[in-house]
Specification:
By secondary structure, the protein is mainly beta. It has two helices and 28 strands. A six-stranded antiparallel beta sheet has the order 1-24-23-22-21-28, with no helix packed on it. A four-stranded antiparallel beta sheet has the order 2-27-26-25, with no helix packed on it. The protein has a four-stranded antiparallel beta sheet with strand order 3-4-5-6. The protein is globular. The termini are far apart.
């Protein structure tokens, strides 16, 4: 039986947080928030006195954070099977009931795009909570369970399709776990099938590279990105294997300076553009994903288990969709 991503991460969190001698009985207190610098450059990104804040709680398993300039955060809840709007005061409202929603992004028209695991599809969600399936097959076969998604420099949608959330009992029709491109005409193209369990993905700020992590090997790979929407020359960028930990790399985002923030053991690992581990943002709960937001896009919004956290930084986040276009779109639809 295939085990879902949320189950794997919950098991990871359980093993991390339970005392070895009494695993079945007594849990340790949550980890304390901590900033662990491995290089002085880390303090140029995160203030040593930065405070972790809880924006929302009471969720089942949070994923797919996307900030909207109308001052709220979209949050997927893989356990409660819904996508919510979460507001800065902690209030939330359900946008749509949806089986196991996962990673999300905006397209170039500021429309919400989500990986709908149970539907085995990439969908577009309107502001009234209805959805349209954009793609659910490759060469006639149903996807496994689309996991994470981002907008590419060319305006196409790029996504990973592991088996992490394939519903128990359903057939795996594609005999590999791939990474795909969905263009404006609805054509799906396979980018690579070389990774064992592709998960999070992100484009570098200069648009030259596509980064993809592999949750099976717990490594991050970098590919050259070409104007025709293909990738090549995959190389190992970083490794997040930690002895004794079952936590895996998942969601990832860049800042505008080219540093890469990736969820991993204990929290968020920060990598320089040259692949040096600058430090780790240790969190109370194991995170699954993250995004940039707030007024100047220097705040990290982090989904972690039952919670959504925020952390102010000293850098501006890079998002694959134009921020100015977002704000303009929101103003035009909320008058």
């Amino acid at each position: 039986m295939l085990m879902s991503k949320q189950c794997l991460l919950k098991i990871s969190l359980l093993l991390i947080s339970l005392a070895p001698a009494v695993v079945a009985q007594t849990a340790r207190p949550p980890r304390a928030f901590e900033l662990q610098a491995l290089d002085p450059a880390f303090w140029n990104l995160i203030d040593p006195n930065a405070k972790l804040e809880t924006m929302g709680s009471g969720f089942g398993f949070t994923e797919g954070p996307v900030w909207d300039p109308a001052d709220f955060l979209y949050v997927s809840d893989e356990e409660k099977n819904a996508i919510y709007r979460l507001f800065p005061d902690g209030r939330n409202e359900q946008l749509i009931a949806l089986g196991d929603p996962d990673g999300s992004t905006y397209d170039k028209r500021h429309q919400l795009i989500d990986c709908a695991s149970v539907l085995r599809a990439i969908i577009r969600i309107s502001k009234d909570g209805t959805y349209t399936v954009l793609a659910d097959r490759f060469e006639g076969n149903r996807f496994n369970s689309p996991n994470d998604v981002t907008l590419g420099p060319d305006g196409s949608i790029y996504f990973t399709d592991p088996t992490l959330d394939l519903v128990a009992g359903e057939k795996q029709e594609i005999p590999f776990q791939g990474v795909y491109r969905l263009d404006a005409a609805g054509k799906v193209s396979l980018l690579t099938r070389d990774l064992q369990q592709p998960n999070g993905l992100a484009f570098s700020p200069d648009g030259r590279y596509l980064f993809i992590d592999d949750s099976k090997t717990r490594k991050i790979h970098r590919y050259a990105f070409h104007p025709n929407g293909t990738i090549s020359d995959g190389v190992l960028f970083a490794d997040e294997n930690v002895e004794g930990s079952r936590a895996v790399p998942d969601g990832m985002k860049f800042d505008t300076k080219g540093n890469l923030y990736v969820t991993g053991p204990k929290g968020i690992w920060v990598w320089s553009q040259n692949g040096k581990h600058l430090g780790t943002i240790v969190l109370p709960e194991q995170p699954a994903n993250l995004t940039w937001g707030a007024r100047d896009y220097s705040t990290l919004f982090i989904t972690a288990g039952h919670f959504v956290y925020t952390l102010n930084t000293q850098v501006r986040g890079f998002l694959s969709y134009p921020i100015a276009a977002q704000a303009s779109s929101v103003r035009s639809t909320t008058k």
